[in-house]
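In response to reviewer comment 3 from the previous cycle, which asked for concrete evidence that the modeling workflow produces usable outputs, we include below a single protein chain processed end to end. The sequence was submitted unchanged, and the resulting structure tokens are shown without manual editing.
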Amino acid sequence: MALDAAAIFVAFWLAYMARFSGAERQAVGSYLGPALLVSLFWLVLLLAIGLYRRRARTNPFQEILLSTNAVTVGVLLLVLALVDWEGPISVNRTSVLVYWASSVTMLALSRWWYFRKWPASLDLEDSRGILSVTLRKRALIILADLGMIALAYYLSFLLVSDWVLSPEQGARFVTTLPLVLIIRFGVFCYFGLYAGVWRYASLNDLVQIVKAVSVGTVVMVLPIFFFPHQGFPRSVFVIDWMLILLLVGASRIMIRALREFWPDSQPSGHRALIVGANDSGEMVLRELIKQRKRGYLPVGVVDDDPRKWGLHIHGVPVLGSARDIPALVREYDVEEIILALPEATGPQVREIVENCRRLGVGFKTVRTIGAMLSANPMAPRIRDVRVEDLMRRAPAHLDTPAITECVAGKTVLVTGAGGTIGAELVRQLLRYPPRKISMLDRAENSLFELTMDLFLGEESQQCQPVIADITDANRLARWWEEHRPQIVFHAAAYKHVPLMEEFPAAAIRNNVTGTRILCELADRFDTEPFVFVSTDQVVRPTSVMGASKRVAELFLQNMARQSSTTFITVRFGNVLGSAGSVVPLFLHQIGRGGPVTVTHRDATRYFMTVEEAAGLVLQAAVIGRPGDTLLLKMGEPLNIQALAEDLIILSGFVPGEDIPLRYIGLRRGEKLHEELRLAEEPVEETDHPSIERALAQPIMSQTLMGPLGQLCAAAEQDDNAAIRAHLTELIHSYTPSGTPGPREPADVTP
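The workflow returned the following structure tokens.
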């Protein structure tokens, strides 16, 4: 503040010296009062516009720029106020210019000295200011701009003078040019014209140029008014505006054009055909044209909309529809096809991939816009086709405000947090966000991996790992009383069907007894809500795993009738790519060179992505009512043999030739086809289009609790025969499977 006051006072003194000759100068006292008054005005102005706001987080260049703007505005205000002043500080052109220049210089020096003395205040991350590094790197661009500013201004005078510049107009040009250069350059810096990367110039950059040139023209008019303006051609400003806009804008576009189109003289790379003349296709073409080093040469686009045929996108023609792909591949020697069809269905993608395989060309797809925003921004936009692309389920839209209202600021417990569903629930919960997430699992390795993964983000402080067994009632009760979770997502379960057939007691202890302990604790401590993750294996179960999960469903329904806690069951099928599921198994077998083992040619399974499943589980916590069994809509089931063949194709091999298929028969407990609801369960729609509600009558408490206690007791005694007998008593639709299927290959593709 003291530096600014001194700078303002010195500037006033210099202006006074320039205004009067030696004989006309008054005594110091005659201008001391006005000088103090003007200095006070400046200090108030500087404080008002916030030049001292958060100074430690700005940089000297921005401070200088802001002070220059303030001085320019302040001088104009002072001139208007003093235009009729008759006294020792009467206004003339020389005093105004000296005052403006000296104020700018003194304030700039004071700020520069401040940041030199306290370098810790310097923050070069502020891109709005003129960074010294930027100035050095872009000196040529700045010099070119100054040259174009001078040229445009000179041509403006020539045009209004009919290409014959009179001595008077020449003098006006020479006199005002320095001021024009200063104003234009300052405004360009203010609008960030030197902060962008011009090889990526876009429409937004052109808009900034128009703003900068327009504002600069308006600012030019005001100070030039104080020059002798008799005969000054006003049309100069209009012509100068058009010329400088043309020159500066064209120079920026030229930089990008040279970068993008210079390599076209020697086109090379994999000849690529783009499927989709849409926004995604345009994005792909733009990236391929700019990034020639990635090795792609786009030769054409196909789209099923006939109105687009014959058009060009970035110079690349739209050659026809997807049906024309085989002919176009041969005609244009296409080596790779890139799918830019985010709206395509799974069967459509599968058909294109199959065509690519038959034609012997490679195939890739693009990441969706949502994936680009949520995933690693450095990940490539073009990637290999994955199995989830062949499903192409419409993304489920979540009621984010409702989930936020349910979860935000609360303590959430996720059991089985180290598993596929549990880990994804934790990741998605962080978006809303809760006060704390307790991640409970008894498998230390998976929980450790999740913890380390989350610790890479800023949200890690919200996550608390808990090593515990859900069957340890005393340990859980002590933990629950201390931490009081308000919401529970229960995803912990034994889920592998063949293993649970071998160890049914373990399935009952974990899936039934563990769920019972958690429900009773939730009821005791008024947890709200409690969401249980179930499986489609509960429908007419043939496995101990499916039957145990069905018993857990019945227990939740029974608890909901007598508890203030909202107990909700969410039932869905397989999660694509979950640990131990069929997709990782097939990929592992393909990586070893085969064979890929398929249980049955006609076996089908329901699949959904883990992201969609976890998101809908969170949605269920919002729309669920006490005792609800909510069913996630899984779409059409996938044939397991077709899935195996798709994975082989996506891995670059030919099914049955490069990688054989081996049929091993259904294993013990497995079903040929899976179902999502019981025959006695009518369903109704909910408020969410991807979730249905089952309307089955809950089992009576007296009918459930006796056999349930006997079932848990049999599990504690490892009495497998008694376990199956009690399961049959509890679940009338339960049909225990017979002996396991053949262990050795039953059938191998030729």
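The chain has 26 helices and 23 strands. We consider this sufficient to address the reviewer's concern, and the full set will be provided in the supplementary archive.
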